[in-house]
Amino acid sequence: MNPNLSRAARVIHEGLAQFTTGDVATRIATAMDAAGLITSAEGLGRPARAPMAEAEGEATELELTATAWDERCDRAMQVTGWLLSQYVSHADVIEIGTDYDRAVVAVRVRSLEDWDHWMAETGVSRHDSGRSVGNAQVTYGRLQDTEVRLVAHGVPELLDALAAAAIDPYRLYGRVHDLGRPMVDRDGCRWKYLVRRGPDDMPLLVAAGQNVPCSLANVVHQVGPLRPAVPYLPAPAPAPVAAAAPPAGAVISLTEGLAATGPGTPAQGTEAVTADA
Question: What is the mean pLDDT of residues 17-30?
Answer without folding.
Answer: 59
